[in-house]
Amino acid sequence: MTLLWILTFAVLGSVAGVAGAATVLLFSEKTLAALIPYLVSYATGTLLSAALLGLLPHTLEHQPAEMILATVLAGLCLFFVLERIVIWRHCHVVGHCDVHKTSGYMILVGDALHNFVDGVMLAAAFLSSVPLGIAAGLAVIAHELPQEVGDFAILLDSGLKRKQALLLNLLSSVPTLPGALLGYFALSQTAESVPYVLAIAAASFLYIGLADLVPGLQGHIGPETGWKQFLLMLTGVGTILLIRRLHG
C-alpha cells in the first residue's frame, strides 16, 4: 500500500505539471499573468506549512534537533548554489523570468532534476507516515502547477512551438516516477536516513517558498489583490492542517 500511495502522488505531481503547462494553450498570457499569483499564493501556504508543521516536527521526533536543523541549513545552502548555477531553476510568474540567464533547455534540465528529487522526497514522506506523505504530495502538486506554466512560457519565448514545448514539459516530468521508486527501495533498506531526507525536503519547500515564491508575490500585492493572496496562503496552510487532523 505504501508503494501504491507513493506512485499515485508521483503520477499526480507529474500530471499536475503537464496540465498546468497545457493551460497556456487555453488562456492568453494576460489571463495567466492575472491567475498565477493566486495559484502561487496557495502553493506558498502549502509548502511552508508542509515544511514547518509536517516534515520538521516529524523528523525532530526521531533525531536530535541539532542534526536535523544542520541538515536543513545544508539543504538551503545547497539549493542556493544549485539555483545560482541554473540547475534548480524556478519560474512561477509568466513574464517575470530572466530568459537571458536561463535557456529553455536549461529550464528542462533543472525541471527534470527537481522532479526526480520530488519523487525521492515523496517516498521518504510516505515511508514515515501516510498523512505526512499526503501533505508533502499536495505541496508538490500545488507548486508544480504555477512552476510548469512559467517554464512553458519560457520555452515558447525560446522559440519552440507549442506542441514541442508541451512534449518537452512532459518528458521533464517523467523523472518523478523513477525518483519515487528509487527512494522507496533505497530508503526502505536504510530507514535511519529517512529523517535526513525529510529534512532536505523541508529545506527544499522552505527555499522555494521563501526565496522564490514570496518575492514574486510581493510584486503583485496591491489593495485589490493583497488580501486575496493572503487568504489563499491561509487556505494552503489550512489544507495541510486539515490533512493532519483527519489522519492524526
UniProtKB/TrEMBL annotation:
Topology in the lipid bilayer is annotated as: Multi-pass membrane protein
Q: Among the record's GO biological process terms, what is one? A: intracellular monoatomic cation homeostasis
Q: Which Pfam families match?
A: Zip (PF02535)
* Predominant cellular place of this UniProt entry's protein: membrane
Any transmembrane segments, and where? 31-56, 68-87, 120-145, 166-187, 193-214, 226-243
The record's subcellular locations are: Membrane
Q: Which UniProt keywords apply?
A: Membrane, Transmembrane, Transmembrane helix
Lineage, top-rank taxon, reads Bacteria
Give the CC-aspect GO terms: plasma membrane
Recall the GO molecular function terms of this protein's record. monoatomic cation:bicarbonate symporter activity; zinc ion transmembrane transporter activity
Keyword Transmembrane helix on this protein? yes
Protein's name according to its UniProt entry: Zinc/iron permease
Origin species, per record, is Candidatus Methylomirabilis lanthanidiphila
